[in-house]
Write a structure and sequence with these properties.
Its EC number is 1.-.-.-, 1.6.99.-. This protein is 41% helix and 15% strand. The chain has 191 residues and is an alpha/beta fold. The structure holds flavin mononucleotide (FMN).
Length: 191
């Protein structure tokens, strides 16, 4: 039986980086660079590939279907992802799950089969510090709670939701800590 408690290094991993401006980014830029240096995963920079925000559905579906683990990497913005990733989810997942039309009873089941067993892992950076993400704190909810739409989307399409990778309190992250986050992140995706 497959043991889902560990990540498997033989899985093909697609990292969808959804940062609106990677050039001005500190955290996501460094995390992405580490993955690119190691060359073990497919790095797919959504805003650079689609500056006009018109997503090539066929290309993205093919990418999704040819990988076993999908990573959504983004800076938390208004407690969610930047809008182009939401658009990607709306267009790509919807069209896979309801390829034969929403009205057909077996459409969802067929679409679900295509994604069943793939993994979804969310990797985010947040301005808020860890202690702000709790009841009574500035952001009131935990990161797990705020990421529930991603978790339930994974459940709904038959994917396995992995433990998120989080870099919080970005203003307090030293250059040294950022280096170790980058290594930890790449190790997590490869190990
Ligand atoms: C439009 C916008 C909305 C943001 N919303 C949040 C938020 O809801 N919670 C939070 O902790 N940080 C928020 N931030 C801070 C970003 O998460 C932070 O700047 C980012 O993670 C830094 O990553 P980078 O160095 O890769 O750009 C927001 C930033 C922007 C620009």
């Amino acid at each position: 039986m497959k043991n889902h408690s560990n990540l498997h290094s033989d899985l093909k991993t697609l990292v969808i980086v959804a940062h609106p401006d990677l050039k001005t980014s500190r955290i996501n830029q460094r995390l992405t660079a580490e993955l690119e240096q190691r060359g073990k995963v497919t790095v797919h920079k959504l805003y650079e590939i689609y500056p006009d925000e018109k997503i090539d559905v066929g290309r993205e579906q093919a990418l999704l279907l040819s990988h076993d683990r999908i990573v959504f990497q983004f800076p938390l913005q208004w407690y969610s992802s930047p809008s182009l990733l939401k658009k990607w989810i709306d267009e790509i997942l919807y069209k896979i799950i309801f390829a034969d039309g929403h009205a057909k009873a077996d459409s969802h089941a067929k679409g679900r089969d295509k994604l069943k067993g793939k993994e979804l892992l969310v990797a985010i950076s947040t301005g808020g510090t860890r202690s702000m993400f709790q009841a009574g704190g500035r952001h009131n909810f935990t990161i797990s709670e705020l990421l529930r739409p991603f978790q339930q989307t994974a459940n709904y399409v038959g994917m396995i939701y992995r433990q998120p990778f989080v870099v919080s309190g970005i203003l307090e992250v030293s250059d040294e800590q950022l280096e170790s986050y980058a290594r930890e992140y790449a190790d997590y995706l490869e190990s």
